[in-house]
Design goal:
Layout lengths: L2 E5 L2 E4 L4 E8 L9 E7 L6 E7 L5 E3 L7 E6 L4 E6 L8 E8 L2 H5 L12 E2 L3 E6 L1
Parallel strand pairs: 2-11
Antiparallel strand pairs: 1-3, 3-8, 4-5, 4-9, 5-6, 7-8, 9-10, 9-11
Length: 132
């Protein structure tokens, strides 16, 4: 059974950095045709895609709002996905979720609204708060 557990959230001031981790169990991401991604959801807003990686190929994508500031990476030996967040802004404040899916058409459409209705596996989230 696939399980995803996020960690690393917290409170930082504007301009600061955080690194989020997502530990996967129940499968081996680097050996499977899957994608893993980070999403976020602020109060009163829809869940939105932040970054995605195809875990076997290592290809990565970033949402326009975080390009140049965030980096997605994985440690295959630890089955762990990371999100390095630099130059944080108050508008980055949200609950951050790790997600995974094995279907190529779902992965390819990761930025389509309402991902929670399509992507199969989700963690419980970790809160990131950025103060000005």
């Amino acid at each position: 059974q696939v399980q995803l557990v996020e960690s690393g959230g917290g409170s930082v001031q504007s301009g600061g950095s955080l690194r989020l981790s997502c530990a996967a169990s129940g499968y081996t991401p680097s050996a499977s045709g899957s994608c893993m991604a980070w999403f976020r959801q602020a109060p009163g807003k829809e869940r939105e895609g932040v970054a995605l990686t195809y875990t076997r190929e290592g290809t990565t994508y970033l949402a326009a709002s975080v390009k140049g500031r965030f980096t997605i990476s994985q440690d295959s030996a630890k089955n762990t996905l990371y999100l390095q967040m630099n130059s944080l802004k108050p508008e980055d404040t949200a609950m951050y979720y790790c997600a995974a899916d094995f279907r190529s058409f779902v992965c390819a459409n990761w930025l389509v609204p309402n991902p929670e209705n399509r992507i199969n596996y989700w963690g419980r989230g970790t809160q990131v708060t950025v103060s000005s």
